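Many introductory courses stop at the sequence. We go one step further.
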Amino acid sequence: MKSVWTTDLLLLIVSGTALVLGLCLAWLGYPHLAHWVWLAGSLPALALLMRDTIRALMRREAGVDLLALLAIAGAVVLDEYLTGAVIAVMLTSGRALESFAQQRAGREMSALLARAPRSANRIENGTVRQVLLEAVVPDDRLLVRSGDTVPVDGRLTSSQAILDESSLTGESTPVERREGDLLRSGALNAGTPFEMRATANATDSTFAAIVRLVSAAQSSKAPASRLADRYALWFVPLSLGLAVLAWLASGDPLRALAVLVVATPCPLILAVPVAIVSGMSSCAKRGVLIKDGGALEQLAQAKVLFFDKTGTLTGGHARLTSIKTDAYPDSREVLRLAASLDQMSGHVIAASVVAAARERGLTLTVPTTVQEQGGSGVVGMLDGRHVAVGSYEFVSAIATGGEWAASFLETVAQEGGAAVFVALDGVVVGALHLADQIRLETPRALRLLRRAGIQRIAMLTGDHREVADAIGAAVGVDDVFAEQTPAGKQAAIVAGRSLGVTMMVGDGVNDAPALATADVGVAMGARGAAASSEAADVVLLVDRLDRLAEALQTARHTHLIAVESVAVGMGLSLIAMLFAAFGYLPPLYGAVLQEAIDVAVILNALRALRIKPLRVNRHALSVSQLQSLRSDHESLAVVLDHLTSLADRLATLSPYEAKEAVERLNVLLQERLLPHERSDDSDVYPLLAQLLGGDDPMAAMSRTHREIFDLGRRLQRMVKTMPPDGPKGQALGELQRLLYSLDAILRLHFAQEEEIYQNLA
C-alpha cells in the first residue's frame, strides 16, 4: 500500500509540475515550449493507463481506465496539450487521493501487523534472555515487561496483569487478569512486568493467526472490482457511443474529446474502493476482520443467518447450573468436596467444577492418595475421609445411596450437559449438573441482528432434539435443525439460499464446510479453530456476538455510501457529457469540472469511516461500575444455591431438620439478599435509568423487587409461626411452593439485570 501511494504521489508531482511550468512558459510568450512540457507531463499518466488497461483486458475485465486512456491519447493527437496535461493531473491526483484514503482507511489493519512481536524474554536459570519468537515453545517461562506485547498464548503465573487488548477486541479500556488466567498473544502490557508460561508456540498463537488473516485481507483482490465492473459494463459503451455520435453530428473531433474527458469514470474507479476499505477499517477497529471487499458486499445483502450452537450461541464450556443433594445438609459442601478432588484431574469437566467452586469463594483442600480412571472419575482422601467424584456408573460402583439418581440423570439428559456425582465415605451425597449455557449477550445480539436487517435466523446443532428446541426457544430463533452432521449443515444452508443471501456463524473444525458453503462465513476467531477461521469470510477477533450486528450494519451503510457516491458522481458526469456533446463544455473546462466531481465523491466515500456502532443506547457504564455490579451478583450466588438446594430436598428432610434449614435460609435472605435488592432499587436503578433514558425505564424491574420483598415477608412470617417441631403436611407443601417461587423470580430477576448491565457495557 505504501509503495502504491509513493508511486501515485510521484506521478502527481510530475504531471502537476509540468502543468504549472507549461502555464508559466505560455504566459511568458513561449507557447511552443509549453506544449512540449505539457506533453511530457501527460506521457507518464498515458503509460500508466496503457499498462492498467492492458492488464484489465488480459483478465477479461471491463477496463474502466479505457475512457481515461482515450481522453489523454485524443488530447495528444488533437494537439490539445493543455487539456491532456489537465486530464493527467486529474487522473494522478485522483489516484493519489485514493491511495491516501485507502492508506488512511486501512491503518487499523496495518497497525495490527506493525504490532506483531518479533522476540520474547525467556527466563532461563534465573536470568532473562531475549530470544527470537520462533524459539519459544510451550511451557517456556516468559517475562513480559511494561509496554511489551504478549508474545505467545500462555497462562499468567504472576498474581495479576493489566492488559490493553484493544488490538484484539477493539476495547480501549485495560482489563485485569489474575493468576492462572489464559493470556492471548497480541495484548499489550499496560501495567507492571509479569511472568507467564507459554501454552503455544508463535505459529499456533492467537495473534499469529490474526496477522495471517490481516495479511490475506490486505493482499486480496481490490475490493472495487465487483461493484465497479458492473457499472462499467454499461457506462463505458454509453460514453464511447455518445462521443462518436457527437463527432458525427458536429464533424468536430473536439466534441468527442470533450465527452471522453468528462466521461472519465473517476467516481467509479475511486469512490467504491475508498468506501469499502473505509468500511472494512471501521469493522477492524471494532474487532471484526472482513477478508475482502466482496465479503463486505455479500455481508451487506445477508438476509438468512445460520448459527452453530456450541461456542457461538452458547459459551462453549460447561458451567455449574444446579446442585442436587439428598440428606446431606449443605450443597456448598458437596461442591467443595468435588472441586477439591477435581483439582488433581485434567478433565475439562473437572476444570469447570473447580472454576465454579472458586467463583463462590470456597476454600479447597489438597487431597491425598488420588487415583483417576480416565474419563470416568477420581477417588482420594480429603481430611481423612474417602471421596469419589465422577460419572454415575463410576461412583455407584463404589458407593451406595442416591435413589434420586435416575430422575436426576433424566433431567440432565433432557436439558443437556453432564452429571457429576459425589460420594463421601461410601455414600452418594449429591450430584452436580454442568451444562454449556447460553451466552449472556446472545438474546440481545439476535435482536440487534434482526434490527440490522436479518429476516430469518436458524440454529444448527448436533445435539438431541429436546436440548436443541429448549435452547432455540430461549434465544428466539426461527428454525432449529437438530442432530445435524457437517453434511447436514451444508444441506440446510444450500436450502436456505432460496430465501436470500445466507450467512453462517461457527467456531469449530466441523463448522468449516458450512462456513465455506454459505455466501458469508463468519468464524468466532477469538478462540475458534484455525480451520473455521481460514474457511470464513469474516472473523470475529473478539468473543462477542453483538459485534457481528455492528459489522452487518457497517456493511450495509458502506454499500449504500459506495452506491450513492457512484450514482451521484456518474450522474453528474452524464449531465456534463450531454453539455459537452452539444458543444457547451470545451475539453479543458470539462477536465476541471471532472476533477471537482472526483474530489466530491471521494470525500463522500470517506463517510464510511464515521459509521457509528449499532447501539441500543448512547451511554454506558464505566468498567469499575460494571465490575462492581457483577461482583455483587457473584457474591449472592451462595444464597441462590442454598435456596435451590433446600427447595429440592425440603420434602426429604424431617420436620425438625426442615425447620432448622428454613431458618438458616431466612437469615441469609434477610441479612444479605433483601438488603442488596433494596440498595439496587434506591441507588443503582436511578443511575441505570439516567443511562437508559425515558420517563421510568426501570419500572418493571422495581415491580419485580416488590414481588421479591413480598415473598421475603411471607417466608419470614412462616418461620415465625412455624411449630417448634417443624412444618408438616400442608404447611410443608406451602413452604416448598414459596421457596420455588422465590427461587424462580430471583434467578429471572438476576438474569434480567445482567442483560441490562451487558447492554450498558
